[in-house]
Amino acid sequence: MDQVEADVQRLTLDHHRSELAVVESMLNAYLACFREIDSLTRTADNESEQVWLLLTNRSFNDLKWGFHLLTVGYNLQALTLIRSVYESWLVCMDCVTQPTTATLFLHGQDRMPSFARMARRLDQPLAEWWQDNYPEGTEGPYGFLSTFAHPRNRVANSMILSGSDTVRLGPHYEEWFFLVTCYYLTFASIRMAEFLARLLPSQESTSDLQTAVQDATTLIGNLTERAHHLLNEDTSVRESPN
To answer: Which of 99, 110, 183, 199 shows the smallest number of beta carbons within 10 Å?
Structure first.
């Protein structure tokens, strides 16, 4: 198993070293921010901030292991972890305008609002981005990722090698699957960085994070263009990243 994963990782690095370096820089920026934040004293007046810290920490762990899985060819499993980052981001966003969500998350006296309800409470551009009507004719990110997190047709298609009837067994490198996974991983890291920035003690502390986000945003544009070209030719996934 170790040898198979090492072979896939070597192939992935040969083709995508620069993309992976950008994502790794984002992960390093997260760690630097955690060192700046150090700790947060829990009070009744900062429950939203507590949620942001807890969920950015959870998201970092998801992103870190999603990154590792991406490099060794377990893309389906990486997408499942990435999906949880989008869920964490949505909860953090809801806490901005709905303090009761933070209280429910921290103390659990009642059920949390559904993700669908939280999404409807987003500002219109973000709500459209999250939902299945943006851009027109494509899926929103959460719906797209959910089709990989559950045993649906897209999962079956993703395990069949492009242009053949051969089933992909174990870890495997395929360019379109790398590009899609890397896109959503990078975008998720950018989204959650919004809440890291809110938690930092000073504006000066955000400079390294801002640089990492700018580089990641540039990478998003490159990945979108390349993935769009490949996915239009591939029968496994027809939708380009949103």
So the answer is: 110
Per-residue burial over 6-40, b if 16 or more Cβ lie within 10 Å, else e, is eebbeebeeebeebbebbebbbebbebbbebbeee
Residue type, 176: W
8-state DSSP, 73: T
State the sign of the Cα–Cα–Cα–Cα dihedral 141, 143, 144, 145.
Answer: positive
Residues of the chain short of pLDDT 50, as ranges, are 133-137, 235-240
The separation between the first and the last C-alpha atoms of the chain, rounded to the nearest angstrom, is 34
The model carries a pTM of 0.86
Q: Which residue has the tokens 């009761």?
A: 100
| Bridge partners for 160 per DSSP | 167
Angle at 128 between CA 126 and CA 133, to 5 degrees: 155
Task: Give the rounded distance of the alpha carbon of 61 from its chain centre.
Answer: 11
**Based on the number of CB atoms within 10 Å of its own CB, is 85 exposed (0-12), middle (13-18) or buried (19 or more)?**
buried
Cα(227)–Cα(210) distance, rounded to whole angstroms?
Answer: 25
Q: Where are the beta strands (DSSP E) in the chain?
A: none
The string of pLDDT tens digits covering residues 82-141 is 999 999 999 999 999 999 999 999 998 788 999 889 988 998 778 877 765 434 445 678
Q: What is the CA radius of gyration of the chain?
A: 18
Count CA atoms closer than 13 A to 74's CA, side-chain side: 17
